[in-house]
Amino acid sequence: FNVETKNLVGANGMLKETTVTQWYGPNLLYSKLLSKSKYTWTNRNLTRLEVSNDSLLVKATEFEYDEYNNQKKARECGYAAAGATCTDANALRITETSYETGAGWVNANLLGLAKSVQTKVGGSVVSKTLLEYDHGADGTADDATTTRRDDIDVNTHSTFYNPAHPQWTEIICPMEPLGQDQHRDQYGCVTI
């Protein structure tokens, strides 16, 4: 069972195509395409994915994004001819996601916070998830009242993503032998 996977990258550096091929027969002279995936990008966002099977039937998924590059809609369509349009009308399943985009969230650089995720099949909602995040000081969910916490410390929380915490400073010291009247500081750097 000899299977070969090839990835083709476009001029923009993004994945353009993936093929999976099975080689068989004497000296592996024959091949059969098992699947092929084509990726369509708009800037940094994947906007269409076409996957074909060994019978060359193509299944497409299309994606839409908001102004913050959050994926807001995914349409999954059934098998069709290559390049066929995938619309709300012919999609087998549609997943819609809404995000927190109020000024309080965006100004705090809190992007990509999903508020709701809803999946529809045949126009009917089959699943729905609602998400809620920390409220402002007055207990409301109004994004304008969202305030940053400055009481997070390394003893109780990771401060890596805390914008109120000072940045980490990385110090790299070469490991050199100590000379006369030299010692190492708390970072391991040689000092006089």
Give an account of the 3D structure.
The protein is mainly beta and 192 residues long. 3% of the residues lie in helices and 44% in strands. The strands form 2 sheets. The protein has a 9-stranded antiparallel β-sheet with strand order 1-2-3-4-5-6-7-8-9, with no helix packed on it. The longest helix is centred in the middle third of the chain and has 5 residues, at 103-107. 6% of the residues are buried.
The count of helical stretches stands at 1
Helix percent reads under 10%
* Largest sheet properties: 9 strands, antiparallel
N to C succession of SSEs: EEEEEEEHEEEE
| Rg of Cα set | 26 Å
State the end-to-end CA separation. 66 Å
In which order are the strands of the major sheet placed?
Answer: 1-2-3-4-5-6-7-8-9
Weakly predicted, low-confidence segments: none
| Mean pLDDT rating | 82
Morphology: flat
Structural class: mainly beta
Strand element count: 11
Residue fraction in strands: 35-45%
Keywords:
3% helix; nine-stranded antiparallel beta sheet; mainly beta; flat; two-stranded antiparallel sheet; 192 residues
List the helices and strands and how they pair.
Blueprint: E1 2-9, E2 15-24, E3 30-42, E4 45-52, E5 58-65, E6 71-80, E7 91-99, H1 103-107, E8 114-121, E9 124-130, E10 183-184, E11 190-191
Antiparallel strand pairs: 1-2, 2-3, 3-4, 4-5, 5-6, 6-7, 7-8, 8-9, 10-11
